[in-house]
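A further point concerns the way the authors explain their paired sequence and structure data. Each protein is reduced to its one-letter sequence and a matching series of backbone shape codes. An entry of this sort, consisting of the sequence and the corresponding backbone structure tokens, reads as follows:
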Amino acid sequence: MGEVYRALDPRLGREVAIKVLAASTNPDRVARFEQEARAAGGLNHPNIVVVYDVGQHLGLPYVVTELLTGETLRARLRRGAVPARKAVDYAAQVAEGLAAAHARGIVHRDLKPENLFLMPDGRVKILDFGLAKLTPTRFGEAHSTSPTVLETEAGAILGTIGYMAPEQVRGGTCDERADIFALGAVLYELLSGQRAFPGGSAADVMSAILNDDPPLLSESGRHLPPSLAGIVRHCLEKSPGERFQSARDLAFDLQQVERQWGTGETPVVPVLLRASRQWRPWAAALLAAVAGSAATWAFRVARDDAPLPFVPLTFSQGTVLSARFAPDALSVVHSAAWEGRPIEVYETQPGSPEARALGYEGARLLAVAAGGEMALGMRNRYAGGERFLGTLARVPLAGTAPREVLEDVEDADWSPDGAELAVVRSSGAGGRSRLEYPIGHLLHETDGAIRDLRVAPDGQRVAFLDDPEGLRSSGSVAVVDLQGGLRRLTPSWKNADGLAWSPKGDEIWFTAADADEGRVIRAVSLSGGQARIVVRAPGSLTLHDVRPDRLLVSQDEERHGIRARAPGAATETELAWFDESAVGDLAADGRVLLFGDRKGVYLRTTDGGPAVRLGKGFADALSPDGAWALTTAEGAGALVLLPTGPGVPRTLENHSIVTYSGARWLRDGKRVLFNGRQQGSGLRAYLQPIDGGAPQPVTPEGVWAHAVSPDGTVVAASGAGGAVSFHPVGGGEAHPVVGSEPGDRPVGWTADGRALWVFRRGAPPAPVLRLDLATGRRQLWRSLIPADAAGVVSITAFRTTADGAAYAYTYRRVRSVLYVATGLR
């Protein structure tokens, strides 16, 4: 079609590649060439080739892209087998790139080893969007700024035959799931060394795609995890509805295989039956069959460590917050937020996969008693991290109006006879948590959080996760007796959520993981010691309930993303880079975003330009001149200045500060404000010069800063559960802010200095208000919620320019599938 030149961009001093079409190229190829430029040019992702420019010279179309060094995946395959772990890594990267394209309504349609490029640093780049198709996604319209693509005749076959999905072979309509099929074929070839669908002619290959399954990967002679073979099979399902429904889900499962490979452990590996709607007719029947053969499955696990079937109970996009077996141990009650709707309580009956809403919208299920009475959390409010407070209510499972019992309840569980309730009461973030059992009888109190409490089968002890941070999914497994005697059975886990007593009551089962790994089900005895692994699966698990022959567990995919609106833009843009993106700061003009992702600090333009990594740590704030990024080092033990251009990082002297958070610049660019804690003291705000000098306290202990006034004289701060007050930077008496309410988080002053921009963290839609400083009038300015709200459980951070012309916010999304399994011991 043309030629590719290596060239130098003199403006930025970088080498680039220029792809130029030949003069004799036919009009159809010219159109596809231009389409490729528009499609790839609208995408910014580390696994997609970057397009810098497009145009024509002397009538010849050209595209300027990043210069890639390395080789295509096809060239790598010609040299011999690819190690299995490396193959999974390549596939996971490609899936991440496809997810970014699919999010903008772009389907590649010609994914194959020739269009996958391996860089020397291990990165994979997706090339050649010449057959890309813009299509409305199955969950909404395609992104409005994506390219307009060529129309193709009905029945036209586009792509490379050996990697086409069946619907492409038939010339039918295809969506992003065709790319998932193609990636499955590529991964099969990487793992087996053979084409998934070989044939002596094009007709033979197409027939194989339509009618045949590839040989089992186990026949390749390579030792592969069973879960990996299942992932490949799931990609290569003939029906689009039975494949992975998104490339992001596929990437997540592949990443879990990477993380869990080679640990040396041999836990039970469940077979996770994906929750596609096509399985609904037989899912309930399978559930009944599994229930009837529990003893057989338990025997197989004990002898052979055999895989177990995990049967899906939920089939919608969203988040499962909690789930319990009903007294019959077959029906399941759960609270969830599906398809962007509010939280609701549902019941799933045996023999039917359809969930029945029980009519308690906005309620969280806390527990189900042996007699069939539910404990619900009503009128919930966000308390920070992953914590919500509400009004405890009792209601029969058969259904009546709830009877309210107690305010400010975070969690609850029933006694074995269903006569009493154990509760966790709290005033929210920064307040003390109290475990009472029965209500009014204090067993334990902490400055942190008490989560996932469960009363023992004998009613003589209460197990829970003791969370010292009080905001995050961390903590150790602890047990307290009726006299208040406390024992911590495990060290603190960095990623813990979900707990229940074992079927025999001699162990506590919980789901937890170290660092960034996916949670697995673990067990610890009442004497403590090393926890054993009960179940490991692709993804991250949350344990909800256990019965003698079955358990209830959800598989949860958690991601943090960023939505932003650039100056002059009519809509928001997704700016997440990996899966833990969090807003740090916006430049004063709103055109540059500072954010963090996977312990790295990045800059990115708010119109969606490529991200530039500045270094390690956590993003806090940009200096007024934009030359420095103020960051918190890993471990939160130091403040570090990272240059946004040429320069050397600087670490500020800590002067015995042991913990930093929420650092901001003053407008003079010479001082920084941060919340910190010295050894043995509480959190408070400090002011520190960047060129030397000790930090000076600005607020009393227990009061932390959120924003500093444009003239640098006043700090807006609040304490646990309190409203906002102003504290003079130079010392002096604090003054309450008229009209402020508990939970307000000021993020800055308006351009005229007469009002505060106030953000209230919590479940979407999260409000941003304009608080008039003279009158105390609160005016709703904007409600924050992503266009795709399915699974979004909270909005956690917000930044805006003084004039409100640009803004950015962080959201947390959890996509869950609820499963039931039997046969565990």
The chain has four domains: 2-66, 71-255, 312-548, 559-814. The radius of gyration is 28 Å. The first strand starts at residue 2 and ends at 9.
